[in-house]
Amino acid sequence: VGAPGAGGGLDQRLRAMLATLRHRGPDGGRGWSDGRVGLAHARLAVIDLSTASDQPMSAADGAVHLIHNGEIYNFRALRDELIALGHGFTSQGDAEVILKGYIQWGDDVIPRLRGMFAFVLWDRRQRRLLMARDRLGQKPLHYAWSDGRLLFGSEIKAILAWPGMARQPDLEAIHHYLSFRCVPAPHTAFAGVHRLPPAHYMVVEADGTSRMERYWSLPEPGSAPPRPPGELAEEITERFDEAVRLRLVSDVPLGVFLSGGIDSACVVAAMAKAASGPVKTFTIGFSDRRFDERGNARLVAERYATDHHEFVVEPDAVDILPKLTWHYGEPFADASAIPTWYVSEITRRHVTVALNGDGGDEAFLGYPRYSGCRLGEWVDRLPGPARGLLAALGRRLPFETSNARSLRYARRFLVDAALPAAARYGNWVSLFAQADKQALYGDAMMDCLGSPSTDLLAPWLGEGAVGPGRAAYADIHGYLPDDLLVKVDVATMAHGLEGRSPFLDHQPMAFATALPAAHPLPGLRGQSPPHPAMAPPRPRALRPR
């Protein structure tokens, strides 16, 4: 967290901001101020547990000061490079690499970083503040202007702790939330409070002027040239195994969330290959068999001889809702927030770092709706009247809240058959459509109807056909950072647990996104991962998710 004009030392205002984030860093917290800028940091000690890696971290001459949230997985390689250039190091951690990297390369240090990060750096000599966020949005960074002061923090509640900070709803953000079940960046639910978008940095000068720039972009879907499938499979496996190995560096106990799906099974397989001892795996189950995946998880645990931990939970929404409300700090309606909370809580009793399979569905087209996009490409070739007949047929099917999931999917697909491809996909990922909102809104919200929420997807979906790759491209820029990664960051950090996601390493993610259309997925069902080389040997019972 941080704010300007903090006075001589860590004053009461910064202390109040830091207090809202102590769950994220239970291993220590301190601050620094030069009268113009105040920085404070709550530390979760993972690499270099000594006080040498405490933050805020300052250069020897006092010219540069840093606070950093996350992990830089290539910090050892960057450290060696900086030592060769003449820089000395006082710690064994990753934060000092950012500090010395900035001194050497300036803002160009950002694209050199491989990992998950949100950091703020105050260059006292040049009187400029640098804020940066990782490429895919794994670590959050919020900011706001209040009475000419720039406030920032990992969570919204830290900013709201600043005296006099306005607490007004952003009605446009709520409008989008009702469609997407989450608030899309750069909005938050609070007027004047913003999220720094993924893959962006912002520079704020001493005179208050600022500029924001994107420093990295995913390649266009299918932009890579075709290659022999065997060669492609081998490279995918090598890239993923490397991403997992990089995430095994830790000075504290480490494990993995193991669900019943292929993605987390791939992580376990790669960890078992690289680790010197048994991998610690954690699975939660439910008494309702429809949601219980312990059986499939157990198959993977047995295959790789993991140190497996299973827990059965009985979710209590009444008990957990106040906790979720406080930690999320704004509306959030992804139902999987509840099991993610429980598995994080239980896992933290045993380890401090947990790998997961997040991002696998987006990278390798695992969601059922991507199969719908393939069907949609066929439907788009039909004449308009034929598509209209399909829509009429869909409206005759039972209402989409039917208990039969396949029937709900079929109805939704057919009802939208006559729509343009982008509008169709927008409806599939929306809870409330524009017409629903018009019937729902009162006078205060009506002005928001001028901007359909699905318009936010347009830059990623494009104007033509929306195949699986294009749909996943939109999800990587929207659903992934705004919903899935918010959910995981909140649930893990609420318990002082660090989550690491090998599928979200930007190098294999970019490679997967560019996979050419000449390598289609088999059948109508998406598959994650798309090649047997990455999938662990497993019984037939294990299903993709």
Using only C-alpha atoms, the radius of gyration works out to 24 Å
For the biggest β-sheet, the strand order reads: 4-5-6-7-11-12
The coarse overall form would be: globular
Q: How many beta-strand runs? A: 17
Task: Let me know the average pLDDT.
Answer: 90
In the predicted model, the low-confidence regions spanning at least 5 consecutive residues are 518-533, 537-545
Percentage of helical residues? 25-40%
> In terms of structural class, how would the helical and strand content be classed?
alpha+beta
Number of helical regions: 21
Q: What percentage of amino acids are in beta strands?
A: 15-25%
Main sheet attributes: strand count, strand direction, barrel closure = 6 strands, antiparallel
Please outline what is shown here.
The protein is an alpha+beta fold and 545 residues long. The protein is built from 21 helices and 17 strands. The radius of gyration is 24 Å and the shape is globular.
Features:
38% helix, 6-stranded antiparallel β-sheet, 17 strands, 545 residues
What is this structure's SSE topology?
Layout: E1 2-4, H1 12-19, E2 29-33, E3 37-42, E4 57-58, E5 64-72, H2 75-84, H3 95-105, E6 115-123, E7 128-133, E8 142-146, E9 149-153, H4 156-160, H5 171-180, E10 193-195, E11 200-205, E12 210-214, H6 229-246, E13 254-257, H7 262-274, E14 280-285, H8 294-303, E15 307-312, H9 317-328, H10 337-347, E16 353-355, H11 360-364, H12 368-379, H13 384-396, H14 405-415, H15 421-428, H16 434-440, H17 443-446, H18 458-461, H19 468-477, H20 479-493, E17 498-500, H21 506-513
Parallel strand pairs: 13-14, 13-16, 14-15, 16-17
Antiparallel strand pairs: 1-3, 2-3, 4-5, 5-6, 6-7, 7-11, 8-9, 8-10, 11-12
Helix pairs in contact: 2-3, 6-7, 6-21, 10-20, 12-19, 13-14, 19-20
